[in-house]
Amino acid sequence: MLEHFREQKTLLSNAVEQLITLAEAGENRFAVDLLTESLARVASETFTLVVMGEFKRGKSTLINALVGARILPTAIVPLTAIPTFIRYGMEPQATVVFLDGRAEKVPVGDIVRYVTEKENPRNVKKVREVEVIYPAPFLAEGIILVDTPGVGSAYTHNTEAAYGYLPRADAALFVISVDAPLGKGELDYLRDVRHHVHKLIFVLNKIDIVSPDDLAEALDFTRRMLQEQLQTQDILLVPLSARLALEGKEQNDAERLKTSRMTELENLINDLIRCQKGALIISATASRALRILNELELGLELWRRGMEDSLEELERKIAAFETELAHLEQEREDSIYLLYREVDKLAARVAEDMETFERRVFPQLAGQLEDFIEDNYPRHSVKETAGLAQDYIKKIILGVLEKQREREKEIMQQEFARVAGRFFRRIEDIVDRLMAASAEIFQVEVHKTAYKDYILGDRYFYFHFYEHPTFIPAFEELTVASLLPKALLKKHILTKTRASLAELLNRNCGRVRADLVESLKEKVRQVAGELRLRSDAVAFSLKNALQKALKEKKASVAEQEKSRAKCEEEKQKLFILRQNLEGLLKLENN
Questions:
Q1: pLDDT for 154-196, tens place per residue?
Q2: Domain that holds residue 206
Q3: Residues 235 and 361 reside in one and the same domain
Q4: Largest CA distance in the chain
Q5: CA distance 260 to 206
Q6: Which residue from 42, 24, 461, 520 is spatially nearest to 286, judged by alpha carbons?
Q7: Mean pLDDT calculated for residue range 98-106
Q8: How many domains does the chain have?
Q9: How many CB atoms lie under 10 A from the CB of residue 198?
Q10: 118, 240: one domain
Q11: Which pTM value belongs to this model?
């Protein structure tokens, strides 16, 4: 099966490389870039496997067992606090990526300082994620393992981090423990997971701690519960012992490894990658290539038919083509205008969300601030209390704003993807109509395809938000009227600090809102450029073919014959490429 998949990848890569050469000859820059990106994706195919579940189900131990080494730390208390990516590489190494974008290389053994709750409580070190490179055979086929924080522990920030990585998963291992029946928290998490992950494999871990009869009962209960919750009979449930599997690999103990039943899971994952991920990437790339091939074929046919027409007839058809093109270009600009209006609505939503958030959170923060002053004023001087209050205000505002910003980013990401996808498809419809109009004017055949969704994929849907981590300070420090009576001083501090809290919260909410809106509008400008480039590339390719025919109509008979021979040669190349690409699609769809 693996050899068959590699043969398909080779055939597809060769076809795409030939298409790139033809697109370059036709000066279709968009097609060249798109196909080059597709070729790179085929060559570096990866499969992201996210390991998730409630805390203390053995997720980190399971990943260590799959890798065959104790890379990730394990302990009795809730441990993993930071998502950790593990991918294949010849030399073991680790990179810590911080929230501000900085990256720091560290020894693999040092990642415990960044990914655990003990060494990095509540992520005080501001780590976004950790990436580990390791020469594990299991990872060699392009698998990327992701260890997520466990949900359901006392650390709510871990739960939020775990949810944040759901959209990245090609598949997920949902780890359940044989000694802890499925609870409400796990089932709630599972209902969220299934909306993001297309393929779920359930792992019933720690089977070494129960008898065969108890294991059979646990398997039956777990399967029935999952079928009921997911409303499907198609449940992939693998019982295993991650601990025994890791020990078996470390000690080269075949019997222990067999008892762990880890091989069943590894075979299932490998089959999933080769049968489903491989099929998906080949199908998507072949479909994208076929759509580009349709455009190249049409340009070739216009060139050939143009050389057959009289000069007068060709000029008349070119004029008709230009008229139709002008109409469609105007429709494209109308669509882009509507795209900007949609994004304006998203920006307004950000502003409204942040205003609502500010109104909702201020009373909560004000209460915390009052408690803080009540606790500190008896033990510190007025001036010291005022200074401590300023630091405390900064701390509590940053705490709530960071979470709110992440929530808004996720919402805007999803909404922008939806809007951008709709307008990409609208532009593809315009491209289809331009090709159909050209074919009708010149009375040539054009291949029609439904592969519009593959032409751009999702490469422009994810974008980086501007983030300014610097806290906007108050315009002035708190003033202290030390001559006031003690009771009035306390009231004065409360009044001043509350006013400072309101000002700082408002200013920093404004900063977050401005950053999000700025990022959103910058991205829509990029998308608008891509929409224009997409239709312009096809229009230019067709116009170029017509201008070439017009020029060659005025050339010598010998030159015309030479052009016709070249046209037939390219037509034959495209015919063979079409057969290969359609053959790949047929295989993948069967």
A1: 333 334 444 445 555 667 888 998 987 777 777 777 776 665 5
A2: 46-260
A3: no
A4: 107
A5: 9
A6: 42
A7: 85
A8: 2
A9: 11
A10: yes
A11: 0.58
